[in-house]
Amino acid sequence: MNAPKRGFSRRELLIRSGVVGAAGLSLPAILAACGGDDGGGGGADELFVENWPYYIDPTEDGATGTIDRFVAASGVKTTYSEAYNDNLEYFAKIQPLLGTGKTIDPDIIMPTQWMAGRLRKLGWLEKLPVDKVPNAKNLEDAFKNPPSDPTGEYSLPWQAGTAGIAYNIDVTGRELKSVADLFAPEFKGKIGMLTEMRDTIGLLLLGLGINPSTVTSFNDAAPAFEQLEKAKADGQIRAFTGNDYMDDLSLGNFAACVGWSGDILQLQADNPSARFVIPEEGGTLWWDTMVVPKGAKNTAAAAKFMDYVYDPVQAAQITAWVQYMSPVKGVREELAKIDPELADDPLLFPDDATRARLYAFADLSDDVEAEFEEAFSAITGA
Predict the structure, then answer these.
(1) What is the reported pLDDT for 39?
(2) What are the pLDDT digits (tens) for 307-325?
(3) Sequence ranges of the domains in the chain
(4) Listed residue (287, 239, 229, 298) closest to 260, CA to CA
(5) What class is the 10-155+291-348 domain?
């Protein structure tokens, strides 16, 4: 029996429910498995996981979700919260505590890799007890030792996605294959760019032959900012959007835009004209990670959970529902047993040649990050 699937991507659900953005509202619900809601104490017997909304398979429609399966298998009393709404908002929430040597309640949180890098550099993370996570050996090679965690000691990826070119073939009249297509005169006024700086600038850098994982200063990325500013001034860009680009794409307001792989996978079910391509120059790779905050009480239980979700059988259940790329080796073979169609989807399982063209954005210092964000906001009008 197929695992349950969500109707929209995590990012779209966040946008449509109004919880994305630095000023996003926290979700009030904390979902507690095994009847408890106390994340403290116990070491190996209790656990508090704080994740993004709609980012794990639930118990519904006769299927048992990952949290309930983990509780049954481990006996660990687990509190699962969906209160991680936005990287910057969450950072502001934990800074007064971790920044003053205090602790936070969750034992595992799920920041995007660049935020995980910031937390690591601030000294706000514990090293992972990898000796108690034997299934960490299943980590896909593409995710090992990223710029945000060069030694791989502080994070394990949760789910991943790519940014590339999304387009409506009914509007373009042809297949697109290059970042240069976003600047084709025939699409003037029908191009969308994301308000997510790393994905938009990262893709433009690749189009210019610059590896976004190697930028260390604003000057390194200046050509992409200049190209974006000119495209806006020339009227090439219709709008900078969040996940609402999917509506514009379906309606034909956008011929093409920077988009996310998982979104288009979902959109194609209702609109076969929607296409997604990783450009020939490459695409950006992002992922959300599992990290243990400094001073977490239940690191042994955290290790049990990480080991459990890195079992390919369990990871495949998560992939079948969230429909993003899994960082766990062996998932494709397990997914084929429950959803053969998904197991053959190249957006979930790019081949080795495609993987070699996916690049994570560099781990920027705080001052360089501020330069990037200021310049990007000036162009987007945010």
Answers:
(1) 37
(2) 999 999 999 999 998 888 9
(3) 10-155+291-348, 161-285+361-380
(4) 287
(5) alpha beta
